[in-house]
Amino acid sequence: MSNVSYYTAEGLKKLKEELNHLRDVERPRASQAIADARDKGDLSENAEYDAAKEAQGHLELKIAKLEETLANARLIDESQLDTSKVLVLSTVKLRNKQNGMEMTYTLVAESEADLKAGKISVTSPIGKGLLGKKVGETAEIKVPNGTLKLEILEISRK
């Protein structure tokens, strides 16, 4: 079953760059490491050759996963997003009802999440809890240490 993910233009560009780097730089490097190890003699007792083959296997798996992700990636047209409710790529200003603290997050695809940059995944507990909510509503989100009550103050697009 394909798993469609939605990306910003920036996120999609980063995925493509990573895939190209793995194909164009890392794959030839792995092949060269195998060739170098093969030249060192008897393959049955060559740990360096085994390690190089295993590293190549991991690299090929990573490339295959990235290719699958890109095949199922969809670009989000940010101009068509509705700002009346929380959706992917919404920037949401929240107030924690327990402590009064205000915070702002942008909901993004899982692979683009970066808490330091204020980007949280739509698949995270908080992201899931905010989806579909409107300004003035309170999202009650179950987290490991209880229930988080977040009031939605503002919804916008960057």
Automatic annotation (TrEMBL):
Any GO BP: DNA-templated transcription elongation
PROSITE patterns noted in UniProt: GREAB_2 (PS00830)
A molecular function GO annotation: translation elongation factor activity
Highest taxon in the source lineage: Bacteria
Transcription elongation factor GreA/GreB C-terminal domain boundaries: 83-156
Transcription elongation factor GreA/GreB N-terminal domain boundaries: 6-74
Record-linked SUPFAM superfamilies: FKBP-like (SSF54534), GreA transcript cleavage protein, N-terminal domain (SSF46557)
Keywords: DNA-binding, Elongation factor, Protein biosynthesis, Transcription, Transcription regulation
Listed InterPro entries: GreA/GreB_C_sf, TF_GreA/GreB_CS, Tscrpt_elong_fac_GreA, Tscrpt_elong_fac_GreA/B, Tscrpt_elong_fac_GreA/B_C, Tscrpt_elong_fac_GreA/B_fam, Tscrpt_elong_fac_GreA/B_N, Tscrpt_elong_fac_GreA/B_N_sf
Classification via Gene3D superfamilies: Transcription elongation factor, GreA/GreB, C-terminal domain (3.10.50.30), Transcription elongation factor, GreA/GreB, N-terminal domain (1.10.287.180)
Described purpose of this protein according to its UniProt entry: Necessary for efficient RNA polymerase transcription elongation past template-encoded arresting sites. The arresting sites in DNA have the property of trapping a certain fraction of elongating RNA polymerases that pass through, resulting in locked ternary complexes. Cleavage of the nascent transcript by cleavage factors such as GreA or GreB allows the resumption of elongation from the new 3'terminus. GreA releases sequences of 2 to 3 nucleotides.
Family: Belongs to the GreA/GreB family.
NCBIfam families the UniProt entry points to: greA, PRK00226.1-2, PRK00226.1-4
UniProt-recorded name of the protein: Transcription elongation factor GreA
Gene: greA
